[in-house]
Amino acid sequence: MIVERRDDANDGAWARLQEALSRGIVGGSTDRTDVRADVFLAELAAVREVRDLFGQKIQLGPTLTDQLRSLAQDRKAREKVFTEPVWAPTDDLEAELRSAGFKRVLKAFQLENLATILRLPHGADFSVPGAGKTTVALANFTLNRARGRVEQMLVVAPIAAFQAWKEDSVECLSSAPSIAIHTGNASLIQDDLDILLTNYNRVASDYDRIREFVDLRPTHVILDEAHRIKRGEEGVHGRAVLDLAYAARRRDVLTGTPAPQGAFDLIAPIRFLYPGQDQQILPASAYFERSGRDQDVLLETGAAISRYFVRTPKSRLELPPTNFDVVTAPMRPIQQAIYDALLGQYRGAFALDRDTRRQFGRIGRVMMYLLEAATNPMLLVAGSDEHDLQEFTHPPVELRGDEHLAHLLQRYREHEIPWKYDKVAEIVAKAASEKEKVIVWSTFVRNLRILAPHLKDYHPAVVHGGVPPADGAAPGVLTRDDELDRFRNDPDCTVLLANPAACGEGVSLHHWCHHAIYIDRTFNAGHYLQSQDRIHRLGLRDGVLTRYTLLISGGTIDELVDGRLREKIVALAQLMDDPGLVQVALPETDAGTSEPPVAIDDAEVLTAYLQAADGNAT
Fold first, then answer.
1. I want to staple 607 with a disulfide (CB 3.0 to 4.6 A). Which of 113, 283, 350, 361 is the partner?
2. Averaged over 201-227, what is the pLDDT?
3. Is residue 124's pLDDT more than 90?
4. Which of 458, 451, 524 is nearest to 487 (CA)?
5. Neighbouring residues of 425: CB distance < 8 A, sequence distance ≥ 6
6. What is the average pLDDT value for the chain, to the nearest integer?
7. Confidence band, pLDDT 50/70/90 cuts, at residue 599
8. Residue 536: Cβ-neighbour burial (10 angstroms; 0-12, 13-18, 19+)
């Protein structure tokens, strides 16, 4: 669309508008700006600011007026839903689904979720992983297409989830749908597709072509694992997806962990569902990240969004129980000396009275170093792997002038093996003798690389960011699909070494594996919860016990992380009104102990930990 400046326009107002629209400007001149319509709509607040604060007159063209009218109709439709009876007959839905060519028979809770979502102009499915969100979403698309509201679907999902979408689409839809995977700027996007699969990175890097696809015909856009856009406009991926919302005819979000850090995480998904309306839906308290897990904020936000989402809790799935084995052990002498030396190096380097955000990048690196020292100190001298998540990227630990730490690391290389590695080997050996399979989770790709030869007798499969998916992989290259297939079907392969960032979403392993070991964890509750659900999900056989073993080095950051994850899972359970989430996702605390107080954020807690005189978390 074209934004033109009249001769009498205020210079400051024009500059403010140019700044707000900068990411969508594609051309223009001194007094004219050519900008993408979706970016203009995303910045309506700035347009209102120009009108109200600068006293400028804004004249809108007919196309933009129609778009704003459509958004207003969205708001009215959203509000109208809540004046109607909540109950919707599911028998009619079953018949309509069959008539529309939907083959799979939905479970009772899935039909109830579908009925609720269909009442909304756009909705969210926050059911736990493994509850069949993909199936419900396909049923939603089928009915909206049969009713003439949409013609095609765009699914934005993690790469690991593509296979599930392809398989479920074929199994659910009687007429085999035309499905394509968007692999990037060079991939062909056909005009006659039923379903296009892409991921968050690719939407951002090839936005214009994805937008053209959505514009081509009325499109149902679904965000799978939608917690990935929680940074909203602050992140490149989130901003692109939020801009895309204005072109979609129907929008839905799916995630079992909608707010892993607290109420603040819900802002971006709500903005995608109802652009420009989030402040009418969410309470003001949800916009303060630092208080996002305060009890009153959780209760207020949970009540505000309860009408916009469905959630099937774990208890509704009637799954067999879980069992947690928390193995807390002291580090061996040299590892303990390394950890203490490292902690001493950082103690006092950060102050609570400084701006935590200014310290954040450095605190993040310190967290990585402490986690590595508590697991395998030799990771310190290597730094991050090229295939670690971007936010976990860090250089080797600085050793310049620290002869004591350098000497300890040299001695460690020659004289010690991490106790966690020995414990993993012990568990895997026992499982193999009983013909059982085990998955071992680690944040650090280098841990997986080192563990692979350590466990070579069990022919480990390895999945991390450096192992490509089958779609788009060069011929002959080992893929994630190959490794997962080997783990599932090769009796000699009894262990899978995996990274939650690459394998924690969209992968089902519950038919083959019932034991997961965590040799390290970070403050990311989403990664932890999603990884648990790879082996504890709908379809698990009756009587199967799912076990989780947490390896924690006593007196280290491992204990701090454990407490923070507990805190976040309790908060998510409260926000989603799902107390059962705590029971299946957390080990029981020792009798007589109390939960640590809710901290403002991870960085401040880590700062306090570093300041503690004895180095113990408080």
1. 350
2. 92
3. yes
4. 458
5. 454, 455
6. 86
7. very low
8. buried
Helix (H) or strand (E) holding 298: helix 295-305
Q: Strand order of the sheet with strand 152-156?
A: 179-181, 195-198, 152-156, 219-224, 250-254, 123-125, 309-310
E-strand stretches of 306-376 = 309-310, 322-329
Give how far Cα 338 sits from Cα of 275, 363, 447, 608, Å. Answer: 51, 19, 18, 21
Residues 331/553, Cβ–Cβ less than 8 Å: yes
**Predicted pLDDT of residue 618:** 38
Alpha helices in 33-61 (DSSP H): 37-42, 44-52
E strand or H helix at 452: helix 445-454
DSSP annotation of 381 reads G
DSSP string over 119-143: HSSSEEE-PPTTS-HHHHHHHHHHH
Strand partners, 310: 125
Instruction: Determine which of 14-28, 84-98, 469-483, 488-502 has the lowest per-residue pLDDT on average.
Output: 84-98
What does the pLDDT read at residue 525?
87
Query: Which has the higher per-residue pLDDT, 248 or 391?
Result: 248
- Distance between CA atoms of 118 and 98, rounded to whole angstroms? 16
Identify the pLDDT of residue 248: 92
User: In the β-sheet with 25-29, what is the strand arrangement from edge to edge?
Assistant: 2-4, 32-35, 25-29
- Phi (first) and psi of residue 523, to 5 degrees: -75, 0
Q: 175 to each of 140, 179, 243, how far by Cα in Å?
A: 16, 12, 32
Least confident of 58-72, 99-113, 451-465: 58-72
CA distance 553 to 616: 12
> CA geometry: angle at 152 spanning 150 and 157, to 5°?
115
End-to-end CA distance of the chain: 55
Complete domains list, the chain, with CATH: 2-59 (no CATH), 88-312 (3.40.50.10810), 319-329+418-601 (3.40.50.300), 333-415 (no CATH)
Neighbours of 345 (CB within 10 A): 17
DSSP secondary structure code for residue 232 in this structure: G
Report the distance separating Cα 610 and Cα 432, nearest Å.
Answer: 41
pLDDT for 11-45, tens place per residue? 888 888 888 888 888 888 888 988 877 678 778 88
Residue 311 contacts residue 127 (beta carbons within 8 Å): yes
Against a cut of 0.85, is the pTM above it? no
Which amino acid is located at 291 in the chain?
S
**Residue for token digits 């408080």?**
618
